[in-house]
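Hi team, as promised in this morning's meeting, here are the two structures we talked about. I've kept the exact order from the run log so nobody has to guess. The first one is mostly here for context; it's the second one we should focus on when we meet again. Sequence first, then the predicted structure tokens.
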Amino acid sequence: MTMATKLEKPLRREVDIDGQPYMVTLSPQGLKLVPKGKRKGLELAWKALISGEAALATALHASLGR
């Protein structure tokens, strides 16, 4: 069985979502999803993800959008 590599520095990858290119950055602090060529996007801290804050924020945003 092989050991996973520890995330010690940012890892960037391009991903295609509905035909649009985005950059995903995984770092020790969390993840960031930004439209390619832009600076601002969505950021999510790992602690927010595991604590459930991310799901709560998504549900709140969805309920306000109605």
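And here is the second protein, the one for discussion:
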Amino acid sequence: MEQLGVESKFYRGDAKRQLHREIELMRGIYGLQPVVVVDEAHLLDREMLEEIRFLLNFKMDAQSPMALILVGQSELWDRLNKQIYAAIRQRIDLQCKLPHYDRAQTGEYIQRHLAYAGAERAIFTDGAVDEIFRYSSGSARLINKVCTHCLLYGAQNRHQIIDDHMVKRVIAGELA
């Protein structure tokens, strides 16, 4: 409610009705389609997931009052697959999952990010990429983490190239 610029009512039921009114105003008067993005949704507790179900249930038969985007780690889908969350799962129209990269894709991912950052040459050796892939299993989040730690280690020690020995040292010393 605060992000809509409205002071929320104290009681939950009143606040829910107030939110529905605001959504109707946005749609009817202003012609806007509200979009709610919940980042780190894998951290939501059961009560908050029920609130999301409530939001999705509003006038569900007639129209979709808003778009809801849940962004989270793979644990989110694992949770939603439980029977207790079937009502929420059934209301999901579209799901996108980022798969883990294979070894070649991991190397391309690292190179692409280095290029975005302005690197004009390779910084990680093939052996380093092998170790990064072995550690991360192709998870973008873990690739980013180990690369960041390796780049910091390399900069602190004035290394121009990150090799497999440095990656192993960083993983054992900082990430294990």
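Starting points for discussion:
The chain has eight helices and two strands.
The longest helix spans residues 12-28.
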